[in-house]
Amino acid sequence: MDTTEQGPKEVPLSLTPAVLSLSNCPGTTPGTPLSKNQLKKQRKLAEFAELRKLRREREREKKKQKRRESKELGLPLRTGPSRKELKKRQVTDVGESVLSVAIDLDYDDLMHERDIAKCVKQCLRIYTINRRSPQPGKLHFTGIRRNGHIHESFKKNDGWENWHVQYHFDRGHADVFDRSQLVYLTCESDRVLDKLQPGCTYVIGGLVDHNHFKGLCHSRATEAGLTTARLPLSEHVDMKTRAVLSTYHVFELLTKVAAGQDWTAAILTTIPMRKGAKAKITEQKDEPCQDLEQKDEKPDAESKKPTETAIESEIESHSLDS
Predict the structure, then answer these.
(1) Stretch 170-187: mean pLDDT, rounded?
(2) Which of 2, 104, 209, 238 is catalytic?
(3) How deeply is 116 buried, as exposed, middle or buried, from its count of CB atoms within 10 A (0-12, 13-18, 19+)?
(4) CATH number at residue 147
(5) Is 190 marked active-site?
(6) Cα–Cα distance between 192 and 197 in angstroms, integer?
(7) How many helices (H) and strands (E) does the chain have?
(8) Alpha carbon of 20 to those of 28, 31, 217, 271: distances in Å?
(9) What pTM does this model have?
(10) For the chain, what is the mean pLDDT?
């Protein structure tokens, strides 16, 4: 009997178990590679993020160069108000005569990524319009879902936290303001906003839907028991297209009217030219010629025309309640 010790037998490499991974694990399928367009978009986004600081530095250098050239030629260094002047214009407390507007951003789940970017871009325009207005109003962004798509899109703008805007996260306009003082602006409303009422906060829907959710803002406002109103577009101008404006156009109209501009001039200088807006011309029909004896005769009480006070009272009855 052979009692010599034998060492461990060598196992062929072909029989050793392979290390399991996602690529060779049974029951899994390999991931599909990205398409050429997707890879191209990823590269562009990475390059855009890397070159952002470099572009900002180049823009600053261009501005400095323009200032030096203007100074050498004796031209004014500024064509608009300075930052200090713009800060002085900002409203510190809300008075009765100050315009108060809330942008309803509680439509996070109804917009695609591209439409959300457009919505936030309109909010940036609204902030710029209000900041450069001679009489800035109180601006609120309500209904922002924390860490939602709109919130993430806001984060892509440097310094957005320092804007002179009241941000309300996870709180809608009905949770921030008194419902009796809210007026939701929708083109489907039966009421006409012929005059801005002091003490009211006007709500504008921040929804970019390309008319896919027609009447949604109006239905939400009526279900919440809020007062609705529409801008007096058809009362002052004739347009070739539908009387539907973007969010920042509605806000710009309100700021101009609050600054003392009449509705017709504010509408014509705000809405795009493609809508073909023209001021309405009130036609006055000439009265037929009458004999002198008929002119001297006093009309009966039934044939009297309504007086100016009666017309004014009728117009006031259709005006928007505060």
Answers:
(1) 93
(2) 209
(3) buried
(4) 3.40.1280.30
(5) no
(6) 12
(7) 12, 8
(8) 11, 16, 54, 63
(9) 0.63
(10) 77
